[in-house]
Amino acid sequence: MTDDLSHFRTCPLCEATCGLELTVRDDAVVRIRGDRDDVFSKGFICPKGSVLHRLHEDPDRLRKPQIRRGDPDDGDAWDEVEWDEAFAHIEDRLVPLLETHGSTSGALYLGNPGVHNHAALVTAPLLMHALGTRSLYTASTVDQMPKHVSSGFLFGSPNTIPVPDIDRTDFLVMLGANPLESNGSLATAPDFPGRLAALKERGGRLVVVDPMRTKTADLADQHLAIRPGTDAHLLLALLHVVLTDPGPDLGHLDGHVSGIDELSAAVAPFSPEAMGPLCGIDAGTIRGLAADIATARSAAVYGRIGTHTVPFGTLASWAVDVLALVTGNLDSPGGNMFPLPAHGAPESAAPGGRGWVTGRWHSRVDGYPEVKSEFPVVALADEITTPGDDRTRVLVTVGGNPARSTPNSERLEAALAELDFMVSIDLYRNETTRFADVILPPPSPLERSHYDAAFYGLAVRNVANFSDTLFDVDGPSEEQIVARLASVLTASGASAAETLAFVLEMEVAKEVARATSPIAGREPAEILPLLSGETVPDKIIDLRLRVGPYGDGFGAHPGGVSIAALRRAEHGIDFGPLAPRLPNALRTASGTVELLVDPIVADLGRLEATLTEPEWTRSDGLRLIGRRTLRSNNSWMHNVRQLVKGKPRCTLQIHPDDAARRDLTDGADAVVTSRVGHLTAAVEITDRVARGVVSLPHGWGHGAPGSAMPVAAAHAGVNANTLTDHTAIDPLSGNAVLNGVPVEVAALAMS
Known about the structure:
It contains 27 helices and 28 strands. By secondary structure, the chain is an alpha/beta fold. The chain has four domains: 1-57, Phosphorylase Kinase, domain 1, CATH 3.30.200.210; 66-143 and 356-445, Rossmann fold; 145-339, Dimethylsulfoxide Reductase, domain 2 (3-Layer(aba) Sandwich); 620-747, Beta Barrel (Barwin-like endoglucanases), CATH 2.40.40. Helix 4 (118-131) packs across helix 21 and helix 9 crosses helix 12 (283-295). The longest helix is centred in the N-terminal third of the chain and has 19 residues, at 83-101. The protein is globular, with a radius of gyration of 25 Å. The termini are far apart.
């Protein structure tokens, strides 16, 4: 027996980026606990992080490629093969299809797991280029796209996203978020419970706006049970009040905002008296909340998935930041601030840029506008099934499970069965990848290095950490899989190593050509040998770090950050609290915060129309919302036994009054019906949901024929997206409407 060894790494399972201490004995992890010396998480850990090694050890996780030889519903139709055979099969089947039908017949879907993996992020453009298509779909349009769109309109870049400065705020208003269960999202903040406790200890206040009395709401000084789907109505009413009395306070941004003089007129229809009946919160309460935000020494407003997966998701996201702006809390300590990640571009000397637009191209069938170079995932089924020269016949998926995570997902499943060929890069044969012709399994999270390229740009404190590979992988790395697939698709004949070397050379060439780079004008051949990292994605991160705001500049700033420096700092490097970045971070054409761009003005008109539309004004009926649990992460951790054991968590929660009206009993089954589908779920009667609201968790419904996740199948639950409507989207972002879905609930008739 060898001695126990401690390894430190960042958890890759959610946005919290918690530091882990892994104890390894005889090449196996025997314990995981929180890294008490991590500069960001300081020892915090959730149940998912503590069983990371169980995902690595899972016997159902794929370790070699699989080829399907028969029906997707037949679990015996699969052959495990070697890598050469898998790629040969792809070359024989997929490439002729693209040659016959053109590159527009191909599409790419990127799932949520890839955003936790810098190798996947770095190589996604390579795969898109190799397919030669504009048909890109991601999990962003079932989750967060409204925030990208509102940020693009306001600040000129869809990735310039303000986050709540929760460590310094005196007053936090949280809408549609339950970080005690989700660990936070679009606000990277390990130990959200501890941070909220610290807020209360320093005399601060917390207001939670949510149709459910969640665990987070239990901590709140005030909980407002809003009617599902009306977050924009409430936020516009708050804006109406603040702009009327006491009036806007722009703080240091005075003179750097366009449209402020027109804003009061734009929000005039949305008084608390008009909005209150729609959102279920009385006018006096709305006015009091507005006054509290405006008069607090500092206030942060945080709106998350419950405010995004609704018909006015972009408008709600816009209103969150505008409310912060007009109360002097945007880009101000304790308010809503902009992270400056270590791998990001250094702060600019002046504001201004090209601005940002959507709709540069449109989807073939439904005419949905492109947003951030992608189409809404709700468009994918129509693109597969609708005849035409550009019909999607070939699909590549990287992670994710859209057959469970997208609206009216049974419709998408039927479409996937019509594809001519599908390739999936995935750890499992799940409800989606069972339709693939070839599954290429990437390494486990412990078989790759890790850097949170996505989430440090959303962190409530500027930090960075890098984790080396813990275990050697018996097979190609993820970037090697993608590079080899790209080589097959383009018939380049290049090896994976040659393709990746070319990608790295192009990254360096772009950087030395950037006029404001610390290595501007230097030769790529000089820079390439200086890059650290075991893999090309590592070296690209090293490049970004070294030319970034805290980087060593390849000698220009001795002592600056690099991958080598992060390796030496095994508990991470803390670059300090968030600091004001405006106006220099603005990339709008005017160089100002642009409040009233045309799409926002038009959507304000659409919102005003709801004041008289029966769909919004009627209060009868039930509305379905989702919910999160701390042991769950969408659909992709349900095959880990330690996370699904215990009492069933996939239940239909309903208020006692609503249950009594429908003769429902606790634990019995009920039929839930929407416009597009129906399902049967076990009833859980609880006053934690508001009257008129029912709740099902997202990401369940396992055990489909042909899938191979037996633990998940044994705890199958039901698929809430059997009920969500593929035609219901936020039109500005294309984001799916997963909350506030009209449903009927009835007791299951006994035969």
